[in-house]
Amino acid sequence: MLAGRRYRLDLTPGQAEFAERIGGACRSVWNTALEQRRTYRRRGAFIGYHEQARQLAEAKQEFAWLSEAPGHCLQQTLIDLDQACSRHGTWKVHWKSKTGNPPSFRFPEGAKIAIERLNRRWARAKLPKLGWVRFRITRPLGGKVKNATVSRDGTHWYVSFLVEDGLIEPERHAHPGSAVGIDRGVAKVATRSDGRFHHQVFARDREVEHAKKLQRDFARTTKGSARRRDAAARAADLARKIRRRREDFAAKTACALATSFELVVFEALATKNMTARVEPRPDPERPGVFLPNGAAGKSGLNRSILDKGWHRIELATRSKARYTGTNVITVNPAYTSQTCNVCTVVDRKSRESQAVFRCTSCGHTEHADVNAAKNILTAGRAEHAQPRTGVRAGARKPRNRVSRKANRQATAAQATAQTEPEPAEIPRP
Ligand SMILES: [Zn+2]
Description:
Bound molecules: zinc ion
GO molecular function: endonuclease activity
Radius of gyration: 26 Å
Strand order of the largest sheet: 2-6-7-1-5-4-3
Shape: globular
Structural class: alpha+beta
Pfam families: Cas12f1-like_TNB, HTH_OrfB_IS605, OrfB_IS605
Distance between the termini: 32 Å
Keywords: DNA recombination, DNA-binding, Endonuclease, Hydrolase, Metal-binding, Nuclease, Transposition, Zinc
Domain Cas12f1-like TNB: 310-376
Protein name: RNA-guided endonuclease InsQ/TnpB family protein
């Protein structure tokens, strides 16, 4: 199976500068080639990879900044562009900007990359034109290198190797028949149908406050100034730190899920809309003025700091599932939080509070997220048992649905109720 291995590079100042130039060359090859494709399309003509590669070879004769970059990296950029254009269409592929796209370039010929271990901690790889680059070997490569990508994240450079690890997907999971439903929420990041949680606070209160301060600092600087650049870098550093915690959490959660369960069911969420703010927030610029809900609240800070990374957990689980033989499926989340898992009656009133579900029909009481996770599992099991019937089991119309009028009354009653009931006993992981 193909797997990625990422290590932090220890480039010399000269190498880092050169890597920056290679990234710049690849970026301008991308932008020039994209503009060329669009120009051709406007004239009703077409230019493909082979013609562009030929013209690139000609351009390299003329420009030193192109010829100094490794040829295969530039070619790879054209191949990536070709694939992006055929997948998304020439007009939907984005330009690469200097600020929005940190340098990244790929060496496609893995067989030609020599890798040597120097000692317990360090190894080095020989990359075309860059020469020997040292990296911290934090885990074994474990396979044959297919290609290598060098990229910068903030101030650090990294190398990712794509390796063929020689492992194959097992025919059957180690725990046949085991299944779990996952409810993704705000109070707990992920609640399992067996009553356990996967939870972590990614940004502590202090850090959220600090991020707000950094954002205010940034807003006070003038465009194009050195202070603005520094303020942006400090904010990005904090966001990166929190992002890494999220990545780590996603990997650990994915590992736990894939190794213990043969079937993992997620709810299909439009995660892009999940960061909508619920309350107005104070405007940092104008004291006493509040920003409205919606677009402003969703941008920037909120997205990077308060994100729970649900999508990442699903992706990581899918990736890990290749090694354990786990099936990962998603179901429509409609009604999962309002349906009783015991008697299947759907009633908004059953959800007493954020934490408590008490069925209005049969009296079944449970932690609301656990009940939702169980419904997700039920829907997933049904879908998994008959995958190609054309009817999505998760989206089934509820049988015993309480009328809309009753639901509206319940919502109004909930809004007026000042005293929240005590949460039910919350199971611990
Ligand atoms: Zn019930």
